[in-house]
Amino acid sequence: MEQKQAIPDERIVKRLEALRREITYHNHRYYILDQPVISDSAYDSLLRELEALEAQYPELITLDSPTQRVGATPLEKFSKVDHLLPMLSLSNTYASQEIIDFDERLKRALAMDGELTYIVEPKLDGLAVELVYEQGIFVRGSTRGNGFTGEDISQNLKTIASLPLCFLSRDAAPARIDIRGEVVMPLDEFEKLNQERAREGHPLFANPRNAAAGSLRQLDARITAGRRLDLFCYGAGYHQGISFATQQEVLNQLASWGCKVTSQRYQVTGSQAVIECCQVIEALRNQLPYEIDGTVIKVDSLLLQQQLGEKSRSPRWAIAYKFKARQETTHVVDITIQVGRTGALTPVAIMEPVRIGGVEVSRATLHNFTDLLHKDIRIGDRVIIERAGDVIPEIVAALPAARNGCERPVPLPEACPVCGAHVMREPDGIILRCTAGLSCPAQLKGTISHFAGKRAMDIDGLGPKLVQQLVERNVIQDVADLYSLSLETLSNLDRFGEKSARKLLAAIEASKRRPLACLLYGLGIRHVGEHLAAVVADHFPRILETGTPSLEQLMLTREIGPQVAQSIHEFFQEEKNLAVISKLLARGVEPVLPRPRTPRPLADKTFVITGTLSNPRELIKQRLADAGARITGSVSKHTDYLVAGDNPGSKLQKARELMIPVLTEGQLEELLTASPALEQLLLPLADRDHTA
How far is the CA of 646 from the CAs of 228, 613, 631, in angstroms? Predict the structure, then answer.
């Protein structure tokens, strides 16, 4: 018998409302004011009671409930969101005199003799966001994006404890207000996150700003929830049902609603007072738990802001004053070579530990060997290092005057320090790269993940955590070892049962007959993406058996330039790569070869597709490619034809301006089936009818 759902009475409804109000109040005391008034156990008791009641009466769950911060289904992608008012960037200034010049410029524009009043705040080094509240309830949040359109990251923003899901008081809440804020990652959380990533073999985040941005752009909000982000609100965009006179009034109102605003904000009059405030905030820089890289200076009066207006991308009434880079000196103990996921060799300086801005620094990446040689940095050198906006330090320069003759330059490596394979120099001479991408241990995890990707060998179920286990347990040493995995081996891995193992083995077996182009793409040859992999497969279908063509043959192939040709040639010259390819073939990988080349009527023709078509766009692209055409995403003077469906947009206008023939879907069909219309459509440009 089906169980009837409980019907809540008025007492339950009122208890739920009271619990939500009380928990919201305590969240504000804890996360915003840092002044809790109850114990953690008492708070947990309130939250458990709320969760239990909502589980019993799910129809009473509200958007602003404290239980709704985490738990949504992972997204496939972020949707776009338009800002009703643009989120502008700020012009930068670096000297006190530039602040004075800014102040005088504004007074001239306003034709005023007195002094202007400003709000001076720390410039937080994080990710700008917009928060939309309707009737005091959070309904959507988005990134700044290009200033006019951002991405909807509402699920991830709701995991931030300092973001109020509803205002503390909604009695006078406006119909709508778009609150602007900055999401930051505290320095201690940043260091903890990077330590975890280092233990797991993941690339480190360069700075807290990048870490915050990466955390907010996770498609699974549970990952974001595992990282302790913070949010500071600093202004209002579009608003309806409320008015403000000054920036100070905006900040005070945001604080009263329960939003977190910086306590280091100053309302001052005159440029000299502004400069003094900048100096005060800079002196506090090392004491703050999050990264700041300057101050933001805004005219306080919103009416004057409106009169001053905006430039193309920034307001005239505000600027950012950037702090000087933080520098120290130390000794270089050693210079090691790090091999990245793509095989790039990077020199890394190991230094005597030194504290910069409250963070102990003992390593600095030197970008590349050109940077190392240009700065002439040697083992044993005394060097200047700095932390400007980024937390990851940089060696600014060596101090040759401090040398005693014992310093040693670092020679350019001729072999990979991890696997001993040949090192290739990029054509621009800046990057050195290991050529054993298929087997080099330093590249192996990334190589396997790329090889198994949907657009490569399409091995469903081979996710990052499984790849990590396989590599760290030494189960596989190269991609060919995937084809010797057994049910027993997979079933013994952590959190990987027999059902998942059988499914993965079936996917591995199916991948043996993927198209040659997919296999070539999966091999991860430098500069060879999906399209060029198809070009190589089409022109050299026996490349896996006969080896690489000569450089001359490669460069004579349409669409393969010198850089790509060199990369393909180097890849197939490396014995370690050839050994892995031999293992792949020996273990049953038999890629499907492209159809024999036949004369194709659209060879050397470039097409652009726009608008809504009756047939799937991917099918049309494939048919054009089979006919020899090249498909690009934008119209240019090199475009031969534009295929236009319904609602074609700006591409149609540009094609007409450039006198490029426009084809309907029906005309395209005639072209592809080589009907009598083909001869007319392929006439020289001067003879074409441009009114299709």
Answer: 47, 7, 19
